Hints:
Helix content is 26%, strand content 25%. A hairpin with a 5-residue loop joins β6 (135-138) and β7. α2 (40-54) crosses α3 (69-77). It contains 8 helices and 17 strands. With 325 residues, the protein is of the alpha/beta class. It has a domain at 22-130 and 188-215 and 242-269 and 292-316: Rossmann fold, CATH 3.40.50.
Amino acid sequence: MAEPRPWREAWQDALYGPAGFYRSAEGPAGHFTTSAHGPLGPLLAEAVAALADREGAVQVLDLGAGRGELLTALHAHRPDLWLTGVDVVERPPGLPDAVRWIRSPGGDALPDRLTDLVDVLVVAHEWLDVIPCTVAEVDDEGRARVVLVDAGTGAETLGPDLDAEDAAWVAAHWPTDGAAPGTRVEVGLARDRAWDALAARVRRGTLLAVDYGHVRAGRPPHGTLVGHRRGTVVPAVPDGSCDVTAHVAVDTLEQDERWTQREALERLGVDGRQPPVPMAGTDPLGYLAALNRAGTVGVLRDPSGLGAFHWVLRRVGRPGPGAAD
């Protein structure tokens, strides 16, 4: 067995190390589906383009862009937007020539070239949930201690008490006073700091984080740490063979607005209404296309699935839509 390490360290290596999960040839789409993949992608692109217009952005930067699925759909929908992808791999084959690509170190580290952004919508789609964070567990004496993990097997042991900064975040946002032994906390401080660091790279624009998450009233008592491999949920083992993810404490991020994805699509005009039945006789192909669109929008809006994702908006150097300049 390997020497147990804090989850945050093992997680970082498992996803972004030299043989990390996100550097694999098949990319994330080989293991799980997001709103950016397959037939969902063009509709998400519609919403992102509408948000860019609403926020006065002329460029969209996709942070954690995978293999460029969302950018490809955006380019097809709105070739006038200036598009840039950022991820840990080299430029994916087949990406439209007009789309720029910047290689990232991965995790919460941002590339040096990503700076002084103006009139931009930065899309962090399922980025924060894969920024490794400290995992803690309440012991039999009621102390929140760092969880250590064996990177090869996923076996866990309890390590030291939380450091002062993580403990302060827990006290403020996910308190464990009186919690039963075994209660888990995924300490969101690393995510909050990554979000702030991203905002510091923007001179004028809007940040959008889209992720699954929770708020203080509904923190999960046993945590959410999990793995994904080839379409299956698996135990989180930080050996590089699977994705490792944990939900985001979305209410601790600095923000101007927060919607569910269901609300966001409605606000941004991504319409999933069923076509009128008489259209089947007058325009059968159009009817089938509209019916297919309605079904796909329904998947994105499903309140028990993707529709429950959080859209967190943060503006930098500019007022919100409709505000006085």
